Each structure stands twice: as structure tokens, then as C-alpha cells.
Amino acid sequence: MTSPVLDAILAVTSHLDIREALRELVRTSIALTGADYAAIAIREPSGAVETFVDSEDNIEPVDLTGNEPRLDVPVRGHDVTYGTLTLVGGSTPLSAEGVDQLHLLAGAAATAAANSRLYDAARTRERWLAVGQEITTMLLAGTDVEESLALIASRMRQVAGADTAVIVLPGVGEDWVIEFADGDPVGDLIGIVMPPEGRAMRVLADGHGIIVESFARARPLRVPEFGRYGPSLYAPLVAGERRLGVFILLRNKQAPEFTENELTIAESIARQAALALTLAESRQAADLASLLAERGRIARDLHDLAIQQLFATGLQLRAAAQTSSDRQTQEAFESALTGVDEAVAQIRSIVRTLRSDAQDAPLLERLRREESLARIGLGFAPTLSIEGPLADDGALAERLGEDLADDVVAVVREGFANAARHAGATAVHARVHLGTRQLTVQVTDDGTGVDPRRTRRSGLANLAARAQAHGGTCELVAGEVGSVLTWTARRW
């Protein structure tokens, strides 16, 4: 082995930058062979050029058609072909020893390519794992689940070098819907229902991720909006037997494909995120259980203490009234007794509301329940007013019907949830007006607006569909400060 060849091979080990290593090998191959031109092209497993270096400092591969004489030496090592070393021109035929030396140089290029890929894979894994740790820490620290999902989409897109990231979550009924999207533009992606036979549903069922080489060539293409993208990666959000959703990374058409290494890491981080989401949901369930337990305690105290005390007071007033002979004094006692009876009736109604948890509970009680439960997501207590000529109708549920009553509860719940996504909201009010010919639900807040990437359009579309079923309308108006959700129903 000549010294220049040995020097070039040794130089490969001193470069972490593959381009510098390949330039050294190109210079040595020309010096060794007397060729007019030399180039090394390292290709991805798909065949696309990953790294190209030549003796003329070209950035893109050069068309060498018709250039003779030409010699192509495979860049191969450990049974893996990484690319080709190409030499063109030169007046001196190569000896057998010269050919062997070229193969040694090509082998060194293979080593450089392998080392570069290992280094890139290690750095990629390090970046992904850092993001995974950030996501897990954020979820376990008690960050709002929806805020966490929006951040997951953003951070995963950035670390993967993707142009768009979306998260598919359960929608209405058995639908699975794109609820979160990050990138630009993504407005038309939010709210898309995933086709039952599509890739996302297959990934969800199998519990394993997949790589799509390019949506530009993918057939069938069941989500037309994905046609503007190229490579994609699907990773399921699974925690044990629970299927929480699917995470999808999308790159533009000319971008490099996702690697198996990226898929493996993405699946691992998606599992971590799914587990953290499950724990966050459990924490919210515990908060809800604590709230319900507190409601139960208040109900018991009202029933066992307040009502009994009022009963005792009423008995004392009645006894005092019977001993008095003055008519005005007796009327005052009777008025006080009437007030005590009304207070007892009101407390009993409150106790029933606090204790009730059945789906068939009276509508007004169910609305009060939503008002209480919304405290968890909002961080403060919203307010609820029920007004109109039918507000005190004892047969209200029968007049509305089960479907409309369920829809009213769903609108109030979604209105509170929408307000929870607004930055800086400190007050939320739900107003339910029960008119004789129209029912109106209006939810207002004083927040500073909502990030469109966090707006669950499927939820608003669901409310619009419910309104149309009752001959009504649904509209969300967002201003610089606050928003107003108005929902109406006209069919009784």
C-alpha cells in the first residue's frame, strides 16, 4: 500500500464531517490514477443521493453520460453498499494494484459513510430523547392535557425536521379526527375524519408505526389533503391495551424519507407520551373524584345540620306563635315559618343536585353539574344563568325531549372547554334562555383569543350538526378580547 492511500484512509478516522473525509478520498483517487475527474456519491437506502462530493466542488451529481474512459467502484463495507466512487478520463491504464488501491479507497469511503450515519443516528436519538423527557416531565407536572398535546405536536415536528405534525384523537361516536396540527399551513387539516380503512386506523389497530415513502406516490390516497406532502411517519399513542391516538409526521415532497431509526425513536416517545397522558387523565379523574366527594360532604352537612337546625327553629317559632295572643305577633311568626319552609325546600333541591349523578337527572341539575365540573379545566368557577319563561317549568325535560336536553348539556360542556383553551381567561359565563319558541345557549369569556392549532373544530362541527337537527344555528365569534359561542334550537 502506498503512502498516499494509507494517509487518505487514516484521514477518514479524523473527520466527523463526512464531506471532508470524502474530499480527501477524491483527491487521493485522482492523484493515484491520474483521472481527470472523480466523484463519490453516497446514497440513502431509497436510492436518493445523500451526500455528493467531486473534484470540481459541484453540489449536485454531474451527468457523466458519454464520458470515457469511466470506472465505477462500489462503495461497500460489511455487506452494505453505500454508493459509488466514479473516475473519468486519464491516459494511463490502471494496473491490478491500482484497482486494488481504488477498492481500498472505496472501502474507506464506506467506513466514512457508516461512521457518519452512526454519528447522525446518535445525535438524532439524543435530540428525540430530550424532547421525550421534556414531554413526559410536562405532562407529569400537571400541565393542561390539551396544551400538552399542542406542545407535543410542535416539539416532535421540530426534532424530526418535519414540515407538519398532526395528532389524531377520538372524535364523536367511532370517528377518529385530526384534533391538533402544527406547521404551516395546517388550517385545512384540523377536523379531518380519518378513513376507517386508512393507514392511521391500521397503525392504531396494530399498535406499530409505519413509514410512507411519499404521499405523492402513495395509492390509495384516502386523505386528499395529504397529497401535498412527501414522506410521512405514523406512530401510535398506546399505553398498555389503551389506544389513545396516532401521531403523524409529514415532510414536503422533496424532503428525505424517514429512517427506521427515526421510526423506532418516535414509537418510543409516543409510548412515553401516551403513558404520561394516561397518568394525567388519572390525575384529572382523581381531582374530579375529590370534587364529587366534596359535593357529597356538603350535601350531607346541609341535610344533617342545616335542615335539622331549620326544623328546630321552625318548631320553636310555631311553639312561640301558639303562646302569643297578639294577632300581629302571630302573623309575624307565620311569615317567619313560611320563610323557614321555603329555605328547607331550597336546601333540599340543592342537596338533590349535589348528590345526583345519573344521566336522567333533571336538565337544570345536569347543567349545574357541568358548571361545577368545569372548574377543573378552567382553574376557576364559571357562572351559569338559566332564564326565560320556561326556566321554572317543572316538566321542562318532557317539553324539550331527551335529545334536545342532551344537546343543551353538550353545548354548555363544549363552551366551557372552548373557553379553557383561551389565554388569560378569568371569567366565563354560560347563559341558557328557555323561550317558548326558541332555546338559546350563549357562552362568553374574557380571554385573549385561542391558538387556532388548539381549536378542536370537530367539536364545533358537532355542535353545529346538533343545532341543525333542531332547526337552529351555531356560531363562535372570537375577538381580540374574549369570544362568544351562540347555539340555538327552534324545534320543540
From TrEMBL:
The keyword Kinase applies. One of its GO terms (molecular function) is phosphorelay sensor kinase activity. InterPro entries: GAF (IPR003018), GAF-like_dom_sf (IPR029016), HATPase_C_sf (IPR036890), HATPase_dom (IPR003594), Sensor_HK_TwoCompSys (IPR050482), Sig_transdc_His_kin_sub3_dim/P (IPR011712). Coiled coil: none annotated. Keywords: Kinase, Transferase, Two-component regulatory system. This is GAF domain-containing protein. One of its GO terms (cellular component) is membrane. Residues 144-287 form the GAF domain.
